[in-house]
Amino acid sequence: MAELRTDLKTAGLEAKIQKSIAADLTVVEQEARDPQPSLPMIEAKLAGIQALLQKTAGVGPTALALVEKVEKSLVLAQQLFK
Predict the structure, then answer these.
(1) Which residues contact 69 (CB under 8 A, 6 or more apart)?
(2) Is the distance from CB of 46 to CB of 33 less than 8 angstroms?
(3) Which of 6, 11, 14, 74 is deepest in the core (most CB within 10 A)?
(4) pLDDT value of position 43
């Protein structure tokens, strides 16, 4: 998640979109630290981030790289929080 946050700042996204994604990342991070994390909540937030990035991916290669990182995060979350 830290890497996603760092890359988000340099992705060239609109401020409103960047702020929305950052808020969703915060929810994912908080949920992952919870003693009983909710996989559906984590999946929903990551899927939402992924969809938003895919719709704005025309802004450049950094946004496309973010999409790939979110996809990997989603797979990892599914493995960790079964």
Answers:
(1) 3, 4, 7
(2) no
(3) 11
(4) 93
CA proximity to 75, closest of 43, 50, 48, 33: 43
Q: Give first-to-last CA distance, the chain, whole Å.
A: 19
CA atoms within 13 A on the CB side of 26: 6
- Separation of alpha carbons 29 and 10, rounded Å: 20
Alpha-carbon separation of residue 81 from 18, 53, 62, 73, 77 (angstroms): 26, 24, 28, 12, 6
- Can you give the pLDDT at residue 29? 94
Q: Which domain holds residue 63?
A: 2-80
Write down the pTM of the prediction. Answer: 0.81
- Supply the DSSP string of 35-63, one letter for each residue: SS--HHHHHHHHHHHHHHHHHHGGG-HHH
pLDDT at 60: 67
A 10 A CB-CB count for 47 gives 14
